[in-house]
Structure formats: C-alpha cells, structure tokens
Fold these 3 entries.
Entry 1:
Amino acid sequence: MLKKLQLLAALLFFAYPVFSQTIVSTDPENRKAILEEFTGINCQFCPQGHAIANAIKDNNPDDFFVINIHQGGFSTPGAGQPDFRTPFGNAIVNQSYSGGGFGYPSGTVNRQNFPGREMTAPGTTAMSRSFWTVSSNETIAQASYVNVGVEAEIDINTRELTVHVEAYYTGNSPQATNKLNVALLQNNTLGPQSGGNMGNNYVHMHRLVHLLTGQWGVDINTTTSGSFVDETFTYTIPANYNGVPVDFFEAELELVVFITETQQNIVSGNGVFSTYTGLANANDIRINEISEIMDQCNNVIAPTIKVQNIGSNNTTALTIEYSVNGGAAQTYEWEGQLNSVSSQTIELPEIEFDLQANNTLVVTLPNDDDNSNNEMTLEFDEAVESHYELDLTIQTDNWGSEVRWNIKNGEGQTITQGGPYGNNQTINVPTITLTDDCYTFNLIDTFGDGGGPVTLQDTNGLVIFSTNGNYGSGESENFSTTGNPLGVNDNNTLVALIYPNPTTGILNIQTESNLDITIFDITGKLIFNASNVTNGGHIDLSALNSGLYLVKMNDGNNESTQKLIIK
C-alpha cells in the first residue's frame, strides 16, 4: 500500500531522523538526463542499447539515469521465461511515438522531442539508440529551473521502502502544476536475452518494477522560483514481481525520481541506491563471484572478484588473500568505498603459480561477523598446445564487414590479424606460422551480434577454437604452440644483445665475439643476413614492415634466437 506524507513543518520533518534535513541544492543547476529505454528479453539488439546507456552513465555518473522498461512483443515471455513487464510500460511507450515503424531498442531522453531524430512521426519523442548519446549530452548542458534530491532506505525485515524527495525551484516553471515521479528499479536479475551471447544468464539492469507515484506522478502545485517541495513516500516491497523474486542482497534496488511539466517533458531528476536497516551483522563482507579465467598457457594470472557488503557498517578497506594450486598466498590490501549492501568488482594483482593441467584458485577474506561466506574457489585448465602452423576458416553472414580477428603473443602484441570481409563468404586464411609461445586468438564482431561459423585448428587437425557464429561482440581463446625449428632459445650460452627492442629500424649489436646474423619473419622466410658482425655494429632494418621477427645469432660455437619487434 502506498502512503504519501507531506511534511508541512520543520518539527514534523525531524520525525524522520534517518534522513538528511536538506538534500537538494538551492543554487541553479543544469538538467539531469533521464533515458527511458524500451527493451525486452527476446531483443537481438537490446544489449547494444544497454551498452550505449552504460557508456553515457560512465561519462556522466551524477547527471544521467536510465530506466529500462520491458514492453512490447520483444518483452512477451515464452514458455519458461520470466515476465519483466509492468502495468506502466504500455502507456509510457504509447505516448512516445506515433504510427508504425517502431523498433527496439528505442528510448526517450527526458520525454523530449529532438527534431530530426524521431523514430516515427515528427514531434514524437522515441529515438533509436544512435541518438541517445548526443541527446543526453545536449540535455545535461541545459540549465534547469528545478533541482531534485532523493534518498531511500529499506527495512530488510519489514520490506518497507521509505523514499525522501526534495525539490527546489531556482526559476519559474511555465506550468502552474508539475508532477513528481518516483520509479523503483531492480538490478542484477539473471534472465534470457536473445542478443548478447549470454543465453539465460544475461544480467538485466535498471529494470522498472514499480512507480510509487502512479502512472504519471503526483501533483506539485507550487512551481515558482523559491518554491521548496518536501515529500516522503513509503511502500512495502513484495517478495516478487510477476513471479520474479526480489532478493535485497542480489537486486541492488535503485530509485530514479523526476519532475515533469505534464506527462511529457522531464525537467530534471536524480537517482540513488537504497540503503538498508535490519541487517543481521554489522561487519560482513562476502565473495559473490570470481570471474571466469580462460585456459592458461602462462604461469601468471590477475584474478577479478566481486565482493558485497552485507553488513550494516560501511567499509573502506579490505584484506584479500589468494593462492593457486596450494602455493604461497598473496595478500592485497584494497581501499575504496563499499557501502552497506553494495557490491564492488576488484581486479587483483598478478600472481605466479605452477601451471598444471587442472588448476584451482582460492580467494579468502579475513574473519568478520559471518565466516561462512569468506572463501570461494575457481577451477581453470591449461590451454591447449598446438602445432605452430595454423589454419583459420571464417564463414561470414550478411554482415561480413563487421568481422575482425587477431592473434596476440604473450606480451600482448598483435602478431597477425584480418577482416573485414565480404558478405556470405568462406574465407580460408593462408596458413599462419607462429614461433613457440603463448598466444590469444580474438574473434570480434563490431556490431555485437556474432556472425557465421569460425574454426581455428592446427595443421594436424587439433581444434583450438570453434563457434557456430553465436559469439556476440566477440570471444577469445588462449593456446600455445610448439615444434617451430626457429623457436626462441632462452637458455643459451651466447652472450649477445640486440637493442633497442622494439625498434623503429636501426638495430645495435653488443657482443663478445663476431657474429653471423640471420633474420626471419614469423613464417620462417629469410629476409636478412650478415656475417662477422662486430661489437658496436649496426643493422638498418627500416625497410621492413612493422611486426614480429626472429633474430638468429651464431658465433661459431653457440647459437641464440631472440624475438625482435619493429614498430
């Protein structure tokens, strides 16, 4: 049940000591941008819209807010699928466009018309995703005549949400009556998505579940300069919406509030994540996730973990211990801001370990009020070892121009690459010859919707990577190669140095004895040789293309092969 309480006096205001007394600025501010994004669970291109919205948020963290509204045919659940729709979506979408041709994902920025950007008829507000960024940036740059502040709290035992909103008018509204809207959003809901290459494990964010103020908000009747609005709303959050559970520790519930002039034209707004009371422990950090680690051919990894504060106290420091295969534990002292019930993704520093066929990473947090959630493990394997000669076959779809690929060595340098290609073609890339090393094959689709089948295998038929085409924006695979007669010898007795490396063309030689020098490209083709090169000698390779080369040096008794990069 929704109860609206208007605070008319300072004395009554003090009845809510949990909240600040003034949360809104009285100085003129620019508008906040509110993107209402129309989406669904069976929407091939909606993940691209979500990525665009996330990028806008990253660039404008305090000035941009997104509300994902599941509506229309793409949101209609099939057998066994969750229903993310709300009673409010149809009306919001229907007022944003006119006529046919309405596609998904689409959205409105502040329910405002941007001439020339309409998805349908002139004067409407729905736009395709290509216009969200420019429209949001324009909105944020405009002055606002009203500022909005919000804070929210949930009692985890009673499930009661209390939302406190303040608004201050720094100018006059052209409308005698404005409307205040409070939207409740749920984050981190795993569910299906036909796009994004995540199957049923797509993470749905900023999902509208309820409008505390009804379809079009509650009236604000004082809209002149100097007017101050102070409203508090309470709402009991159900255990689920349409059968989709609301787990407070997983959901990270979010509030977005905004003021409209009518049902259209959002003047400005604000957003906040709810805080919580009634938690079982004061100090309790748990590990929620360790990010997947690809098969490895190096003995160094940099794990990424996600931790969550499920205690009532905020945390600014955290000790993290981790080890691989029972080896020596490494300790990382994290510092930051981890508020109650909020989560944080942490990339740990690299740790060395003895690589085995099957490997186990163990991450542990220090003792706190609940030690049952302080440790997590992750298994990962050794990468496949292949022959040094590889065959790559790419079948493109109707959008071959979106396909790219590259192979990078253990230092992250691109050894070879290809794409874009034509449509509906089979590309048999000429045999790729590599030195003995650790590599990463990266397959990329610039549009994010995958393409046709792709297979990378060695000339002995060992499959390194294979996909049926459902690779979204891209996939990667680690592998190592062996058997190249030009393999780099790191355990040689020849004392010689080539520098600088990388070089732009001029290579200096430091040696204790005269050398015969031969240089090969990565296919094994001889491209340079010189005899009796003395200490302090120079070799001019400026005519060669940028890339990786192998320099073989021989003094008559010992031999060494070293990698050389020409920039």
Entry 2:
Amino acid sequence: MRKVKVGIDVGGTFTHAVAVDVTSFDIIGKACVPTTHESRQGVAEGVIQSMYQLLENAQISPEEIVLIAHSTTQATNALLEGDVAHVGIIAMGQGMEGRLAKKQARMNDIYLTSDKLLPTSFRFLNDATPVTEERVRQAIKELKQEGAQVIVASQVFGPENDDNEKMVVRVAEEMGFMATSACSLSQLYGLKIRTRTAVVNGSMMPKMMETANLTEEAVRESGIKAPLMVMRSDGGIMDIGEMRKRPILTMLSGPAAGVAAALMYARISDGIFVEVGGTSTDISVIKNGMPQVKTAQIGSNRLSVKTIDVRTIGVGGGSIPRFDKNRVVEVGPRSAHIAQLAYSAYTNEEDFDDIELEKIQPRKGDPKDYMKIANNGTNYTLTPSAASYYLGLVKKFGHGQANMTAVTRAVDAVAGKLKMSGRELADSILKYSSHKIEGIVKKLIREYKLDKSFVVLVGGGGGASALVPHASNHMQLEHQITDNSEVISAIGAAMGMIRDTVERSIFNPSDNDIVKIRQDASESVISMGAEPSTVEVHVEVDNPNRKVIAVATGSSDMSYRERHTEVTEDKLKEIAAHNLKTQKEHIQILGQTNLLNVVGYEKIKSHFFGLMKEREQPVLIMDHEGVVKRKFPDIKVQATTADGVKGVIEELGEELRSYGDAGELIPDIYVVISGKIIDLSGLLNISQIISLVDYDLKEFAGDNPAVVLAKKQR
C-alpha cells in the first residue's frame, strides 16, 4: 500500500491541495478551489473542499494517508481584520518587581492596524499573599464583567516558577474560558514582551479553535486517521492540538510553507527563494540548508515568536501596468482580478486589431493610471505573465500555458498605441518588476552576508515564470523554477518537518544547562509526532542577550531517510563542481559516512597583484543522490570515527581559536555522522560542544565513520 502525505495551502485567491508519495517524492494528485474568505466557516471550508477534491481526483484511499498538513491565513487575517477576542490579563508579583509588573503587564488596547485594536482588561494579584483559587476566580469574574473572553496569566519571574500561571489557566478553563500562560509561549525574562505575546496568542484562540475543530471533524469524517498538522511561521509543522494552544505560531505560515518546499522538495541548500503569486511576491533566504528567521512584530510591538524572514513586494504575475503618455511608469500593486480585468495571456480571444487603451482607477484611493484594454466588449489588461511569454522567457507553465497568439497580438496592439515595439513594451513592464525584486535581493545579500557568486534565485508559485527569469537576467544571477511551482506551498505543508524552538534566559550557561535545553527541545518535537531517530537540534548561546536557544526538527516518519537513486562518484563530483564553480578535476571527497559525503577543493586567492596568496577550502555536504545539504565557502575538514570525534574537536578548537573584541572565539564546529549533520556552531566554549557531542553520539557505535568540520571565526 502507498504511503501518501497530503499538503494544503490557503492562498489569497486559491486553496491548493497536493498528494505526495512518501517513497518517491512524486506528486500523485493536485486540487484547486477558490479560497473561502466569505464563508461562514471561513477558510476552513476551502481546506475541506480541496481535500475531498484531491482524494477523488487522485483516487486516494484514507488508509494510504500517513499525514495531512495545511498552512493557514486565519491567524494573520484575524489580526489584520480585528477579528480577535477581548483578553483579560491576570498579572502576579510582589515587592518592587510587583509594582513594576503592574505597569509592564498592563497592555491597554494593542494597536493592530490603523483602525483595529485588540481590547484588554487587567487585574493584578500581589503574590506576597498566596494566590488562591478563590482570588483567581474573583479576578476572572471581574474581568468577565469588563468583556473579557479569554484569560492570560503572567507572573514576574515566571520562567523560574510558573505554578501560579498554570493554576490561573486551570481555574479559567474550569470556569469555561479559553486561557493561556505567558510561560507556555516563552521562557525568556522580560515580563512585557512575554505578556504581550500571550495576549496576542489568546486573542486568536476562539477563532482558531473554531477553524481547528471544523477541519479536524471533516478530516476524521473522511476516514483519515493520520496526524493532522498545521504549518508554523518558522517553516516547521505542529499537530493541530498544539495549534489550539499556540495559534500565534501560525502567523505567516503561508510563505513559510513555500520555503519548506524549497528545502525539502526542490532541495535548495543556498539561495534566495522568490515565491510569486498573482498580486504579490514573497522573498526569503535559505542559507546553509536553513531558512532565516526573525522575531515577529505586531505593528511596532515585538513578540516572543520566530517567523521566517519574508520580504513581500506588491507585484506578481497578474499585476497591472500603469502608464502615462507613451510609456509604462509602474507595475502594480493592483492585480487584474482585483480590477475585474481579463488576462490577455489566457483568453481564447485572438483578435486585438481594434483595441481602445484606457486609464482606470481599480479601487477608491488608487492611482488613476492603470491600464485597461477594451476589446470586442471585454476588458483586458497586460500583465508580467504576458510580457514574459512574449519575450520567450517562460519554460515552465505553472497553472497552464498561455495562448501565444493572443499574447503576441495584444502586446503588439498596445505597443502600437504607445508608439513602441512589442519587445520594448514587454521589457519595460518586466523592468519595473525586476527593479523591485532587485532592491530586496540586494538587501538580503547584504544583511545575511551572502556570497553573490553562489546566489541562485529559486522561483516558486504560480507566477514564478512571469518574474524570476527576467529578474535573474537583469541581476546577472543564476535562476531555476521549481517543479510544480504553482502548488509549491502545498507541497511544503505536506513535506514540512516538525519543529519547535525553546528559548531560556540563562547567562553563562553550564554544560548541564546546554544538555537540558537540547533535551527539552528534542522531547517537544517527539511529543508532536517526530520519530526520535530523525530529530536534530541546534543550540545557540546568546550571552549578550542572556539567553540560550534550541531549535529542534524531526520527521513524522522515516521515509525522508530512505535512499532513492544514488549517483556515481563521478556524477557527485560533477554536481559539486557546478555548485562550487570550479572544474570537476579539482573536487576531492574529503570524508564519507554511510549516507553523506563531504567534498571540496583547495582554492588559492591572490592579493596585492599576486604578491600575497591565501588558501581557502570551499566545501559541500551532499547526500548519495547528489543533493547539497550544506555549503561552506571556507572550512577545515577531518575524517574520523565516532570514538575520535571529541579528540578531533579539541585539536581543531585549539588550532583555530581566535580573539576578538569579546575575547576568545572558538571555531564553529559541525559533525557529520550517518545521515545527520550536528550543528554545534553558536556555542561559547569547547566544553559545551563536548557535552552536546556526548549526548548526540551515544546512539552510534564507536567505529562509525564521522567527519568533523571547523570554521575559524573572524
């Protein structure tokens, strides 16, 4: 019997569903329905419709499904539209800290958008006197009278002891309220940001609970017994039960799903992912096999939540050009479907000999120079999609191939009205789009210190071919369009890794602290359904901010570890040479495990007219299919065994230690063993690294091949 994962992505216009064969990674079914924003059941109805359509179209039986996951716009929409609950805050503390807590935990009404506020009410309990159930019940009754629908508990120094927070949540739930505690969302000190995060989370709970219940009920009625997961904003997935408690983690889960697909399906280890929809484009960075994350914000308010760093621009495959006199002056942000204009690229009409060119205002307050083409009783427009087809840049067709006769005649007809050639018109439309992409890409290259010579633009989304080829040519960068790009986010939902982040306020952590937070993060993803043997954890010590962060990922099954088609050593070197931009003859295999290869070459850089020379070693970690897992511009490599790893780490630590403004710097260390890449970068001393290595290597035999990589910090 097949094993199938189902992924569903809720987009602004369409909800897509896909079925992925777990063993082969083949797409065995697709479905698409309009997103049900106006439905009484909200976007959940579209999720359910697309799921049933997929099962029918692809002839999939419920027993074949091992996992179903979906992204959601519900949390983001709730905040943007002000569809949130009134939150009652119960803060606790005593003494001087308690007096400060009264000020820090009192949120007043939180600003969401220019005309939307999140209402709150507040009570403070001095815990110098024991916080009893009776006191809590009385506070909740008072908050209810002020309109509170959800209760949030937050205590001074809660990360050290959150018993009172837990008790408040329990009492509130017994009284029929939804409730959440600040410590369940963040273990960091900082009462204000912890409380604010809990308030935003609590405000979403009623709406998200309704959506979760509707979705889960429909899935179970279909006969599917597999885990039901929801996409997180950091690119991972979590079970729907966890979403009920922490809906805030699903903000921006749509763009995160696309990035997950770039990693798991397109297998991009380094690149800039450009996901193009009809109206907008999301741009994000994948570096060293990892998405780049940032702290989420509501307005100007920071939250204790991580999201993938996604930059959005107001141009997509269906954006409308704006023009003045005989030239294009802008493209977007309005798109054809918003202005109720037909796409000239996808019409059956082929006669554009007698058009009228007009300027329109799609919505009140918009500029009045958007392009409308009146032709034979139908209103059309040109779009970047049409321009890209006209210039022959489209090689992959996404939702469907354009009518090239209509494209050619429409572009030429408009160009004639503007007194220019068709190529000039198409190029001018795409230049405005490419300039917008270029501005974001340059920022990301600078902020994340990317080596431009290695940067690849990876296009996904239904409009990828409309924008990415021209943008890459404009910026002189390599590009690729993912397979099945129109459903890339749904694929990402299906293939997403279970993920969780644990952050704690610890200054100068002990080795035991490091091992403990690593264990807690690991146990968290295992409790959400990850197979223990697939779990990988990266621990980082951030002493300036007095915190330790552990990020754990794992798969819900062993399938992603299964081998598929192994490539020959010669082919492996050919792929490596392409990625490292060198000759195949230069590539050497520097170390191997039973599942991974470490390959690289020695590169000599000349400075001062060749008088000074510097040696570098660019390196890739690749699996046996030739997929690049990590890329390093310069790193030292030493092959060893599991028993020899600690000794090699100590040797390389001594050899590559350096000194900076903050004192001694140890090298970034990575250990490759079996199919795992153990990322030990971000730690402060060799002792911490050895403690984690002991923990991570205990499952491996001493003679198991291993490779240690060490990068000197500068």
Entry 3:
Amino acid sequence: MTTLKSTVDANAPEFGANRDAMLAKLAALEAEHAKAVAGGGEKYVQRHRERGKLMARERVELLLDEDSPFLELSPLAAWGTDYQVGGSVVTGIGVVEGVECMVVANDPTVKGGASNPSSLKKGLRAAEIAAQNRLPTVNLVESGGADLPAQKEIFIPGGATFRNLTQASADRLPTVALVFGNSTAGGAYLPGMSDYVVMVKERAKVFLGGPPLVKMATGEESDDESLGGAEMHARVSGLADYLAADEEDAIRIGRRIVRRLNWRKQGPAPRTGYGEPVHDPEDLLGIVPEDLKVPFDPREVIARIVDDSDFDEFKPLYGPSLVTGWASLHGYPVGILANARGVLFSEESQKATQFIQLANQTDTPLIFLHNTTGYMVGREYEQGGIIKHGAMMINAVSNSRVPHLSVLMGASYGAGHYGMCGRAYGPRFLFAWPSAKSAVMGPQQLAGVLSIVARQAAAARGQDYSEENDAAMRAMVEGQIEAESLPMFLSGMLYDDGIIDPRDTRTVLGLSLSAIANGPVRGTDGFGVFRM
C-alpha cells in the first residue's frame, strides 16, 4: 500500500492556534444549530406537547432504524433571514428498515409548519438529492401550507414540489406521506401525489379549503372531520391508505411500508476488509490555517479520511498545485482532486481534465477538496493559454457523469470554484468546513479592483481622487464581501448541504457514497470539444 506519511506536529504553536480558531468556529456553529433544534421556541413547543404530539426530530428518530445514522441536510437554511434558522423543516438521509431514505419532516412549532421561501428551497434540494441518488422519500407531514405573507416567493416555484413527487413515482422512487396534522390548501396535494398515505386518526386534516374558505366560496357549513378528517379519507374519499391510531402507530405503519418496497441498490457494493485511517482525524482541527492565504498540504487531510490512509497519487510531479489520485473511502473507490497551493495554472487544469476522463472510464466517483483562489492571471499565463486550459477543466467537470462530492475546506474563489465542482456544477453533495470561504474573489482583491477602476474613471474625467473616500469604500466593500463569503451566510442561502465538523468528514462522505450507491454509477460516453 502507498500509505501517506504525515508531518503534522500537534504540539506546534501554529497547530494549536489553528485548532483553537476551528473550535471557536465550531462552537458558534453549534449555537446556530441549537436555534434550529429549538423550533418555534419554548411557548410553541410546550403547546405542541400539551396536544400530545411528538416534535419533528422525535418523529424522525422513531422512524429510523435504532442506532442508525442520520445525515441531516441544510440545517442552517434561512440563517441571516427573518425566518427561523432551519427553515421550519428537517431534511436528511436515514435508514428505515435497512433502506436509505430521504426524510422530510415539517416542524409544526414554527408557524404551524408553514412553508417560507427557505423551506421551499430546502425541500426542493432534498427532492433533487432523492432523484439524483434514487432514494425513496418519507414525508412527515404537519403543515398549514404556505406562509401567506411570503406567497409571492412561494406560490409559483412551489409547484415544483408536486411535480417532483409525481416524477419520482414515475421513476419508481417510492414516496410515503405520514400525515400527523394539518395538510391544507396546496399542502393537500402532498399526500394526494404520494404513493402511500398514512393518516393519524382524529389528528390529520387534509383538505383543499378549510371550513371558513368553504363557507366563503360555497356557503356550505362543514366541520374539519367531515371535510378532511383522517377517518373520512380512510372510509369515504380513499385518500388515506392506512388509518393510524396515533403518531407512533403511523410511524410503525410507515416503517412497514418501506420494509415491503423490495428495495435494491443499483450501484456497486463497497469493498470489505478496509481499515480506518492510520493518522488521527482529530488532527483535522489544526491543519487549516486561520489565515487562508497560508497554504497547507491537502495530503494531510486525505491521510485522515481515506481507508488505511492509502493514496495512489496521479501525476505527482506535474501541476503540483493540484493533488490528484486514487483511494477508497469506507470501501468505495474514489478519485480525489485537492488544491495544494491555491492557484490553478495551465498544468493543473490539464492534469485535472485527464484525471476526470480516467475516472469516467472506470466509473469512479470523484471527491473535490477545495482550497483555491482561482485560475492564474497575468500576461505570461494568458499568453500560455490559461483561459482555454481552465475551460478544458470546467468542460470535463461539467460533462463528467460519475458522482461528484465537494468539500470546501478553505478558499473557493472565482472560476476555481467552478472548476472544482462548485454548487452550480451539480455535485451530488457539497459540504463546507467552518473555515471555508467562497466568493468571486477575496475581499481585499475585490475592493482593490474597485479602487483601481474608480481611480481610472476619475483620471479620465480629469477629477481629483479622494483617498479618504477610497479608504472608506474599500473598508465597506471588504466588510461586505467578508460577511457574504462566510460559510454560515452561504449555508443559510442553501449554497451547500451543510457545514460539518472536519473530524466528521470521513463519516459524512461515507454516508454520501452509500446513498449514491442506490443508483447506478456510470461515467460519460463523451465530453464536449476540448480547446487544445
């Protein structure tokens, strides 16, 4: 085996400083996660419990196999907005009766589980992941529908929710709805378009229009139960396939439904007999410098996430700013591309292109470990063809058909973010470390560019240029770009699938690869035109 050696000194002052900075970021992250777990707050949680109902996360826990993992997705959705952190919905991948499922649970303690713009984005992302990786979906439903003041941002794009359900069914991806409470208006179509529907007796209420709306629209007097109660739907309308006595019974029935799906994975099974990394994952806390301008060796990260710390490096002497090579992770073969010195040159771009082609020939998933400031600029590099070589790499990433997984460890700036398979390039999963930053360029560089442009414009007009105003402008821009490039801001906008503890990287990637294996893993039959 080609076991990676490590030069990390856990006793070095720099390591200790890096570790302290990472732990501080993780503490801040945990505080934000606590806000999502708290739901609508103590008042609404207490009211919900007094009604004899389980919390959203308790429902998820009961649904999943005992002691099985749950890969929660987008837990910081809505961070930085006026909406509750978490987006009033819990989404993630968990194991139900041995089957990996996408689980979506409304949090009824947050405005009755009403859907806001962040909830919608989070739900659509969950549906996209389920479709890409061929996962059955279990919806734990209790929602009053759309948050009406925000309807302009929800109504039109929200129709995709129901389209996705019907397309999943057509693609033989089962959908199960367990209805615990309200599922009204457009939300009534969620059980209406699911393959299997379970409703809780005397609790579930599913109707297009509640009694007040019916009264206004038709003059008809009606009550909740006769209009949309669980027993009516089980006995009269036929919308409910199963009538559950209580919430625990609904979850039991849901588990039995999944058990009878006769589900089989279509992807390759992991190899057996692999070992854990020989280097301590705890060291991952101190490897990334607080100052992202300081480079670090990504092999130190690779050595702590791949099986046996075994890594066959590809083209190690060519394009050294990008590390490429082969490994396995929890028994799944992978190819890895990791930024070493930040900047991508022509050699790195060509190396990446060849490596991605090779991965597609052997149906090998790719992991991208980001720490890049982008493609190199300057007269020498432009004349040397950096545009066409960068385009070559982006072409390869765009048209590669093997699954991609991205982890933002440090900087992920400019077109380098694209070439390393950023969000717009469709990675199956994208996670960030608390140390990550992503933007069109670094704050100082961006502010400097604006300053140069403003100076040139003033000179062209024959005007004096105010150094005082320039300093104020630069400070303002740097502050804005710094804030907008931080992982919590980007995670709140759902530009990643979650911020993770670096020590959990191996586990998170392993769970992701296992989920991916529910569908076939095949490379492309052809790429676009490569400009040589």
